[in-house]
């Protein structure tokens, strides 16, 4: 039995995998993260609200998202909803599931970051005439941003890898493409390691981006 | 016109922070709220600012009933002990922000910011971030920020409390001079009696949530309403059931002065030009006497002396110490 590495296969399969990283994994991640952040901001503010119903709803949402597996959430949306007449294509299903998931985790990060800004900043903002809304936007969030970058980067990097689950609901992205080539060539180890390396490189880029962003925002927390 | 506080009560749970406060703060003057930590003075200041709400009572600022106005509508400038600088904005932006949100024309904002930074001696730091300033500079920036919106009233909550002693003294002098220039009605919260005596036109002594006395620095120092005010405004000692200032005690080596009390010097400490004596008498185990070095010449530990309050010196009955007649 031949046990050497099929370098020719590595070479020819690399571009298809990278291509589906670029047209599958990356847009899926970016769209889900962007939508997830908007949702997270809304949920964080709801949880911080003095209106009991709002904070209760926020708490319940976070609890459900964090208390159930992402794969199950994905299946409920793609395979489950059609039973009540809601039929979604693979891509929208994946984006909805991932943004809901990011929304739950990032909401807690944003809430904590807002709470980490000293109460005196709110008071100082009010004393020079700002409304709550203006104080939040111009004084609190810019300072909370720096605090939330490391944990949000974590969420982002997890999301890059979690998008591989979308292959199970027929979204063609990096991992699904690797699976297809592997099934055809029967070279599972080569293809899956190759897929792993591409994920790793993507995440490496993100870590570099995170450091750059932290550097830019550092002035907000310097004492 | 001025600030009127009427019948203000404030509880935090079981803790009574303020009890039936009535207060008049005159326009254009610098008033100090003086008292020990936890006595309620900061709470009172925050109620005037609108950062806390009173349980009962009213606050009127320059004729406007403000009790239910939110802080941002009271037109009050506030300076916090820990600066509360907007860390993500330059010094100039910190000062300008209040004017910008009031939609003042750009040129006017720029001019006003320049004037204010000049006033607080920070012109050359306009484009720095607060993190690049010292504590004293940050607090001056906070003051410029508070003054920018031309407040009716300026409130300062232990503004120099986080600074070291030397800077604190400098800023105190500077605040007094600034007030003489700007004349905005100012309320300063402090637990430092020297600070209050030095800068304030009027002092309100607050303790245990109540006003103990209101008056000018001289009135408070010379005619304290009770033992608390007397002991809070300066050092005191007990001699024959009376509170008296340690520098207001005459000491002699015989009993010729009527009413003098015999005692024995137990300890002598010299601090610069001043000498502090500890004297044990029959009624008071540890009477403090201070005098200049010249007057203390010839005295030594163990010597027998006679003590009497200086003629005309202020004395207040000591409530805590047992009177000889009431003993038993």
Fold and architecture overview:
The complex is a heterodimer of chains A (223) and B (328). Chain A has 223 residues and is mainly alpha-helical. Chain A is built from 8 helices and no strands. The longest helix of chain A has 42 residues, at 7-48. Chain A is flat. Chain B is an alpha+beta fold. Chain B folds into 2 domains: 2-227, P-loop containing nucleotide triphosphate hydrolases (Rossmann fold); 237-317, Beta Barrel (OB fold (Dihydrolipoamide Acetyltransferase, E2P)). Chain B is 26% helix and 32% strand. In chain B, helix 2 (91-100) crosses helix 3 and helix 2 (91-100) packs parallel to helix 4 (135-148). The longest helix of chain B is centred in the middle third of the chain and has 18 residues, at 165-182. The N and C termini of chain B lie far apart (54 Å). The A-B interface holds A 118, 120-121, 123-131, 134, 138-139, 142-143, 219-223 and B 49-51, 70-73, 76-78, 80, 82, 84, 86-88, 97-98, 101-102, 129, 131, 142, 145-146, 148-149.
What keywords describe this structure?
heterodimer, A: 223 residues, mainly alpha, MetI-like fold, 0% strand, flat, B: 328 residues, alpha+beta, Rossmann fold, OB fold (Dihydrolipoamide Acetyltransferase, E2P), 2 domains, 6-stranded mixed beta sheet, 5-stranded antiparallel beta sheet, 8 helices, 18 strands, elongated, disordered C terminus
């Amino acid at each position: 039995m031949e046990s050497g590495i099929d370098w020719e296969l590595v070479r020819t399969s690399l571009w298809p995998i990278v291509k589906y990283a670029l047209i599958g994994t990356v847009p899926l991640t970016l769209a889900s993260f962007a939508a997830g952040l908007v949702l997270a901001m809304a949920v964080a503010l709801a949880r911080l609200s003095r209106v009991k119903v709002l904070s209760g709803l926020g708490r319940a949402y976070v609890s459900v998202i964090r208390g159930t597996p992402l794969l199950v959430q994905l299946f409920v949306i793609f395979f489950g909803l059609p039973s009540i007449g809601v039929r979604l294509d693979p891509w929208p299903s994946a984006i909805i599931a991932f943004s809901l998931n990011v929304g739950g985790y990032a909401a807690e990060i944003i809430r904590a970051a807002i709470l980490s800004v000293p109460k005196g900043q709110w008071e100082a903002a009010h004393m020079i005439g700002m409304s709550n809304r203006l104080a939040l936007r111009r004084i609190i969030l810019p300072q909370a941003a720096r605090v939330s970058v490391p944990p949000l980067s974590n969420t982002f990097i997890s999301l890059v890898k979690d998008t591989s689950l979308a292959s199970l609901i027929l979204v063609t992205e990096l991992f699904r493409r690797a699976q297809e080539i592997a099934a055809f060539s029967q070279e599972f180890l080569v293809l899956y390691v190759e897929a792993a390396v591409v994920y790793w490189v993507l995440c490496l880029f993100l870590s570099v981006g995170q450091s750059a962003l932290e550097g830019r925002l550092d002035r907000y927390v310097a004492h | 016109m001025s600030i009127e506080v009427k019948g203000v009560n404030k509880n935090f749970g079981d803790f009574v922070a303020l009890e039936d406060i009535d207060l008049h703060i005159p326009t254009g003057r610098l008033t100090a709220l003086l008292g020990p930590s936890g006595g309620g003075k900061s709470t009172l200041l925050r109620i005037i600012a609108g950062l806390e709400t009173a349980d009962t009572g009213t606050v009127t600022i320059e004729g406007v009933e403000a009790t239910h106005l939110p802080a941002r509508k009271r037109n009050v400038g506030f300076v916090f002990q820990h600066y509360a600088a907007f860390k993500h904005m330059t010094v100039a932006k910190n000062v300008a922000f209040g004017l910008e949100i009031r939609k003042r024309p750009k040129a006017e904002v720029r001019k006003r910011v320049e004037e204010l930074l000049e006033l607080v001696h920070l012109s050359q730091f306009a484009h720095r971030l607060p993190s690049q300033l010292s504590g004293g500079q940050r607090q001056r920036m906070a003051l410029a920020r508070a003054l920018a919106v031309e407040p009716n009233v300026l409130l300062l909550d232990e503004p120099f409390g986080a600074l070291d002693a030397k800077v604190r003294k400098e800023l105190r002098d500077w605040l007094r001079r600034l007030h003489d220039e700007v004349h905005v009605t100012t309320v300063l919260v402090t637990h430092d009696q020297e600070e209050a005596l030095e800068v304030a036109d009027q002092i309100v002594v607050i303790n245990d949530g109540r006003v103990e006395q209101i008056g000018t620095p001289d009135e408070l120092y010379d005619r304290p309403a009770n033992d608390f005010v007397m002991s809070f405004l300066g050092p005191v000692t007990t001699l024959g059931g009376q509170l008296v200032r340690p520098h207001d005690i005459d000491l002699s080596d015989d009993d010729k002065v009527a009413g003098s009390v015999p005692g024995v010097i137990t300890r002598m400490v010299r601090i610069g030009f001043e000498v502090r004596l500890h004297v044990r008498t029959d009624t008071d185990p540890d009477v403090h006497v201070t005098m200049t070095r010249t007057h203390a010449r010839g005295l030594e530990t163990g010597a027998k002396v006679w003590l009497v309050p200086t003629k005309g010196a202020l004395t207040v009955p000591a409530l805590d110490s047992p009177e000889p007649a009431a003993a038993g």
